[in-house]
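Fold this sequence, please.
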Amino acid sequence: MKEKRNFNQEEVNFEELKKIKRENPNAILLDVRSPQEYKEGHLNGAILIPSYEIQKKASINLKDKKEIILVYCQSGSRSKKAVKDLKQLGYEQIYSLKGGLDKIK
């Protein structure tokens, strides 16, 4: 059963991200780093839309604006910007991995 999250914050830590994904298997893991960074390693199951292509490609790759989207980058700054961009496009449940991949290594 899909649970609607009501976080006041737009950022989640890695433990929260894993819990959300476990409770909501259809939640989308979105990597907003460059294609090269993605090739060098990414979270299992993540799709790639580089942050500079969010405005252009979100509607193609992210059809359901109500689905949970868990966004990450290397340090957290690109994912925070992506969250703002996605909210402007009408997506409702978007969370950025606080500190990015740097925080989980």
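Residues 55 and 88 are 9 Å apart (CA to CA). The first strand starts at residue 11 and ends at 12.
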